[in-house]
From TrEMBL:
It holds the Pfam family NB-ARC. It comes from the Eukaryota. Transmembrane segments: none annotated. This is Putative ovule protein. InterPro entries: NB-ARC, P-loop_NTPase. One of its GO terms (molecular function) is ADP binding. Residues 1-75 form the NB-ARC domain.
Length: 75
């Protein structure tokens, strides 16, 4: 469904101050047809927390770190 304005609409909502004010955290990631679960987790985690070197961690550890952070947040 290329060319329908999906990305433009998503960016407009994502950058809207009224929408942002309702949430504690927000993150943005690009999902292509060929994507890496690990890269998605790292992108989201680095958006909501200080970026750090998490390359040595297993996927489950990264997902758990994100889950623990988001437990008390509105997202």
């Amino acid at each position: 469904m290329p060319g329908l304005g999906k990305t433009t609409l998503a960016k407009k909502i994502y950058n809207d101050p009224e929408v942002n004010s309702r949430f504690d955290v927000h993150a943005q990631c690009v999902v292509t047809q060929l994507y890496s679960w690990r890269e998605l987790l790292l992108t989201i985690l680095n958006d909501v927390l200080e970026p750090s070197d998490r390359n040595e961690k297993e996927d489950g550890e990264i997902a758990d770190e994100l889950r623990r952070f988001l437990l008390t947040k509105r997202f």
